[in-house]
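Subject: BOS complex subunit NCLN

B.,
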Amino acid sequence: CRGAMVVAEARSADEPALSRRCVIMKVSDFTTEKYLRAHKQNAAAVLILLPRNISGVPHDTVQSFMLSEREALLKETLMPVYVVPEDDQLLYMYEEVKQAAATRTSSIFIRLRSMVTATAFQILVSNNAPIQAVTDNTIVTLEFQGVLPGAVEDAPTVVIAAHYDSFGLAPWLSYGADSNGSGVTILLELARLFQKLYSSPSTRPYHLMLSLTGGGKYNFLGTRRWIEENLDHASSLLQDNVAFVLCLDTLANSDDLYMHVSRPPKPDTPMYSFIQLLQEVVSSRFPWVKVGLVHKKINLVESTIAWEHERYSLRRIPSFTLSHAEDPKSELRGSVLDSSQVDLRKLKRNGVIVAEALARYMYNLSDKGSPRDVQVFRGQMDFQDGRMSSLMSLLTSVPRAAQLLDKEPGHILLVNSLEHEFRRYLQQVHRHTFHQDKDPDIAFFDQMNQPIVMYVKPAAFDLFLGGCIAAYLGIVYYAIQNFGYLYTKLKAAVKSKHQ
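Prediction pasted inline below.
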């Protein structure tokens, strides 16, 4: 990689000529077509302005931007793309270049007036240092594992997993509220609630293992290394008698729930029974929620996997992923607009669905009554709105891109806070730190946060400067054209002075 030094005049995406210009776009302007046009015309850079309040952006605009963002991420380019939160100065610049673009189709008089009154803006990104690969990055495989042990040593094991990192067009603006702050929040609430249920030896029918892994947005590298670490130890609960693994991924902001499996579960298996119970809870208590089973085989030829459960399925461990995203390539799973806006009511509802289904499976409550009649998680055992809101605020307080989590104090504090939550409610908590191999699967690079300088160039100043230059050139031209006459006059004046 190389550093990109940008010195270019700001232009709107509506301008016909974008070559060697810095194209300014709002979220509402950014489309795949405009991005590709800027790329085709060799624009110097693209600058995207993120709104201060995402909730004020129409849903259709957000969806359109997320789709275009995903397309841009898949496109290889040397054109720098910068993402910056809006402020008053940037909005003023945007309006000026937008107005200037609008006058291109106006009358000659309006265009001349615009040339006199308009303000030009120069964008400068000075970066002479080459971009270097980060060789000491370890956060992609930072893992947390905690256990609520069963009453007997050979009890079956239920594993609940989630990944905690985020992804987006700009790492420093990737907060991942829904993907996957929602999954982490539900997992931490499950740890608190089941710790209460496991307070008595008579209410521990299963080993309950919970895992938070990093590198989820990069082919679930953390999950792979965590599984390898556990399978290397004979005492690991993953070695045998695993009932199933439930992976939580993107569980807010929708009334859909999809259970993604690599192979359809066979009847009379633990995973089949749990899925049936989960569907019963939904149909009995939340009939408006759409539940579906999505079967996708693992393609061993592909270099990437779609869902976290596929890492377990490759080891023949029964597993599935619960998510409101039906398509693994959904734009909802990695966007800079997934910042802080989540529907806490839907998040809580999905958490209750998972918890009630787990309780009915682990304690065999089907014979006790319907999910509506027998509710385990209510009253003191209910999901706490305040705690869930606080957890979401904590998770979205800093961007959680994998390459940042071991670099800055705020990010390190977040990881330590997650570990503290595990140690508060779980036993046998282990924090695994894995380093990438000498030939890493992925490579991160530095200089992800760069300052941009904006210079204001009023057109009136350009006219004044142009007038001064024209006057200077006129004087020089007049002097050259009349050099003989001026020389004769000067010579005569010198002679008369000497006489």
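The mean pLDDT is 88.

T.
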